[in-house]
Give the backbone structure.
Amino acid sequence: MNILENFKDLFLEIWQQGIAGVNFTQIGLAIAIFLFFLLLRGLIAKFILQRLKNYVAKTSNKFDDALVEASAGPIKFIPIVLGIFMATSYMEFDGKMSVFVDNINRSLITILIFWLIHQIVEPITFLIKRVEELLSKDLLNWVIKANKILIIFFGFAATLDIWGIKIAPIIAGLGLEDLSYNKIIVDRETLGGNIVFKAKVYSSIVGYRAKLELVMKNDGLIVARIPGSPVDIPVVTLMRALGLESDKEIASVVSLVDELQDELEGSFEKAGDVPTAKDAIVYISKRIAPGMLEEFQIKRAETLLDWGLLPHLGKHPENRKEKAQFLGEAACKLS
């Protein structure tokens, strides 16, 4: 009986430990979700796409026929991307694995977008009635192929950029200054006639690079854009989540000059009702993982703070205050 009890305890322990911190219950649920989306893919291919093809076959123009035919592949790929995203959302990964899975999802979405753009290049030429009159057929084919190659190239570069490989800044023409890693680079852009100031940091460690942007909006609010967060986070809220709870503490980290501290008034007013570090983490968690269980939301927020934000300063909770000080320095350069 002792042997059976020991086997039972060992079995339950392994079941709970699972793989990479994910127990087998979550793995089973994730597999079921992914299989459902695979089934959905088959239904889309068999019924929806086929009906679309039958419908456009009745029209007189060539554009809709070419568009449906060209976009069939990306449309079939959408359920796979959604299935992997939904499946991984229900698994609670720890630390580096969470960042890895997030990069997988970002890469799949990037591939989907560029694949769709690549496929619709040729059908668009049907809309330009005079293209073949202006260009010879051979030249038109060359233009189409050149555009497709460029789209593949930029899609490849965008995917590599997600994984921290340095090709994207070179392609984007950001200049030599933007290739300085772990340093604060202040830039300004003109958007809609307004000048927007940005502080960028390419936080780099071996095998991983995370881009942080602080943006000062027209109303004076400074927000942070972090890998792994689908929304902008007010920098005051982010610094509070990192352990600087009082307004005075946050202001003094940004600057000891009263005039510069006064410029933070807009950021403090619009930071929301988050007086403590715990409240700030909850605020962030609800925005980066909406609809998930609260425990999972909190874990995602803490992973974002430790792994997604300025990893060159460390990847542990004890590194958070140093990250808050670095954010303060970046915010000061925007003031």
About this structure: The CA atoms of residues 157 and 184 lie 23 Å apart. Residues 176-334 form a domain with the Dna-directed Rna Polymerase Ii 140kd Polypeptide; Chain: B; domain 3 fold (CATH 3.90.1110.10).
